[in-house]
Amino acid sequence: MSNTIETTPENFRAGFTSFVGRPNAGKSTLTNAMVGQKVAITSNKPQTTRHTIRGIVHREDSQLILVDTPGLHRPRTLLGQRLNDLVAETLGEVDAVGFCLPANEKIGPGDKFIAQKLGGLPPRTPIIALVTKTDLVNPAQLAEQLLAVTKLGEELLAPKGFAAVVPVSAKDGYQVEEVAKVLAQLMPVSPPLYPDGELTDEPEMKMISELIREAALEGVRDELPHSLAVVVEEMIPREDRPADNPMVDIHVNLYVERPSQKAIVIGKGGTRLRDVGTKARKEIETLLGTKIYLDLHVKVAKEWQRDPKQLGRLGF
Ligand SMILES: Nc1nc2c(ncn2[C@@H]2O[C@H](COP(=O)(O)OP(=O)(O)OP(=O)(O)O)[C@@H](O)[C@H]2O)c(=O)[nH]1
Questions:
Q1: Hey, what domains does the chain have and what are their CATH numbers?
Q2: Which region ranges are annotated with the description G4 (predicted)?
């Protein structure tokens, strides 16, 4: 047992923060550079959020919980009001937002789009700009980008602009500590929300994806030898459930390489996927000891076995 309470300094700060930015902006790499350990949250933890926790930064005087903001990462799949609602809802729940903009690329429409959405947030959520990948530019280029980013903030986050603009390189570690420090100062005064140590639910997520993978391969192993990857995207406790009868929504993507394989996994009229879902659900319910709703999606990720970026994303 830890004695967290007794040893917590008086001005300890703890809270939730989220990195946003267009694809490739460096969010995941920065998250990994800041966090000692990867985690994913399930139903049985304190202070459960509806977001996937990507990691927790434990510092002497603070704790930062890095959460995902679904939606902003893939604006093209969500239209208009739905996106606005989602952004307000999810980012309304974090204590600060880190907006990642690569130092080596001109500010583009994707960045402006996100900045505009951030500008629509209630003014209480501080937004800091993180100019990422500074190792790829020279000092003059970096200075120019810092100015451009500051200007973007003044234009689209009027009247306040960004709470801070911090250059960082996750690759060589430059200013990674500074990012944590700046974010920590924006967290509310609070004892740690998660215990140090026993952090990870990742084995649980792995077991769940394995159960689904096994069920999905049953009977079609020859047709789908190594072409199936299963990723548990989110596990979210269902709201408004009685405490003695909880339920967890589990969203899962099954990745295959070719459309023909997708057809095999889904089966005629979706019957096969339904059977896979039923079988896996029972096993997962036994594993977790709670009711679940299993949401399975089959996606084609072309040649994912050969693409390091895709592999990374699928947890290989
Ligand atoms: N040189 C350099 N490359 C970086 C740095 N941070 C990230 N990258 C590279 O930039 C690419 C994208 O980084 P990610 O961390 O995956 O970016 P992301 O914003 O999470 O991307 P999505 O998952 O597509 O939203 C990868 O190839 C990284 O290796 C950095 O500090 N320096």
A1: 4-185 (3.40.50.300), 202-313 (3.30.300.20)
A2: 132-135
